[in-house]
Amino acid sequence: MTLATSFNLFYPGSTPHAHSVINNIHNSLTRFSIPHSFSQSLSTFVNFTYGYLGFGSRYILSSNHYKNSPLIFILDNPLLQTTKELPSTFRLCHLSRQLPPIHFTSRYVSCGHLSSARSTLDTYTSEKLLNIFTTRDSLSSPNNFLYIKPSSVFLRLIPELSIYNQQRLNSFRTHPFFSSSTLLVAVKKFEAFIRPYSFKTCIRKHSLSPSSISYQHINACYCPTSMLAVKLILHSVPTFLSPYHPLYPSIGEYIPAMSSIEAKELLIKAYTQSTFSIDRFQSLVHFISTHLSSSP
């Protein structure tokens, strides 16, 4: 087989859910008669696994970065979750320093999935309140600057994110959005993190109750990595991203307040540039082959 048709799926060695996703991808590819191999480890050609934990984190944190290893890509959840079932659309990043996302020059998402993504945006737009977990006892302030803490896993895997994040927070102290607002810090209820000095993954549970806040009471938001940025952009909240946010390559570091119609088109564009449907996997591998062959 050639590079354009050869690829391998392998287990990440992280969580039962991640292994279920890989099994589901393998079964779907088999149903679509898309040729591939399925193994417990790397092959000599293009490799795909799911999620950053397990193999991905060991690879990034290893001192030798598995020298002379074959091509490896991480499959991740799409920008817009259109189902609570096992995903059938994914984003893609290259397993290398800073985990650069892959953005497509052609569309690899099906019409059905694109329609579902638009419906998801419509649902988000109809919501009046944002549900978050925060240490604040009261959300009575009508003027808030929302800071959604970055992913602990990304902070460990991308040291530059920690440096950037601190510098950005310092710069906000003199920003009009910040000086006229009350700081509101949000976290995940359950968050994965990688133990210091090891590759072991643990789940941290924050003992917090969910809180709801009106979008109209959020003057601006800083989302270094959180996908809640999608909802905030849809509700005309000025939003700051970090260069390590999945949306950043498509829409940049700062998204000003805009109408819901403009926001939907912006986010659909980002979705189609970063997301592929599982039945387009063969075309995706062709894209990777063409992209690599044209690289210096």
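(the above was protein one; protein two follows)
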Amino acid sequence: MGKNWGYKMKFIKINLLGLFLCLIIFSCGHSLPEDYGVYGYTGNKCVSFETQNLQFKGTLFQSITGLKGPSGAVLEKVDYLIVFLERITPDLIQLSKLEFIRQDYVTNIMGHSGVELNMWVAAEPISFKIESISSDPDMYKLIFNNSLTDGFYAIHFGNLGKGSSLELAASENIVYDFVVGQLENYPSFEELKKRNEEQVKNVAIKLIDKMNNLYNENKFVEISSIYKPNGYTLTGNDLDDYIKGSKIWFFEAGRIENYTIQEINVSETFGVILINTEYEKIGRRIEKMLVNKIGENYFITSIH
């Protein structure tokens, strides 16, 4: 009796603990939120979206609004949204899929001028129907007409894109954003710039290594596939002169015994590299190489 009673109590405690954990995991579930905000629901999971202010770029006459990047909310898919906000009526609610734009044109006093954007702007309005929630007049359920595909989305209550600067300044500039899919696919400009610079750095190191190996093997014709002086492809007499000069230099300097990169400075599309190169016959010498992006690929464009 005592053993059975102790076992039953242990079983009850375990099940109560399991029930408590389940309540934590599924607390959001399909229940309605208690706090003001915007929420995304999928299955038994709900995610609260963060807010961020719109970014403005343009002139006194016309501006373009957008976002720097995602604020962090990510879902694999979204079944529906709940908008629970004060003083927001259904006619104000908009949902847009965003795209990253580097630059665009806006109106100024002289006509049009280019403006650097580097932000995410509305690319496609998403259609949905709204259902009122009878238990609270400030709460609305948004049901999409079509399932949301992977992308970066924003719920906004004013213009998100190009418009009159005065109108944009007077409109609501708070946005709730979320990502469907993988967060890393929708970087901010700062993150994108950092990625591109790291790519240039890695490519530059590989190009230098490849060039030095081809030089040591006297494969000067193949070097022309990665070396484009001032951005031009070596052909005809220019290629012949390059090969002739390279052979003379190899005879005088010898093989490259070793090299180290002393300094490397990169931007999104080019790099400047200082290299300490040790030659077989003339010893060490500091060389400067430029690497540039031409089309979709990178090339060494200068050697000093």
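Reviewer note on protein two: The chain has five helices and 18 strands.
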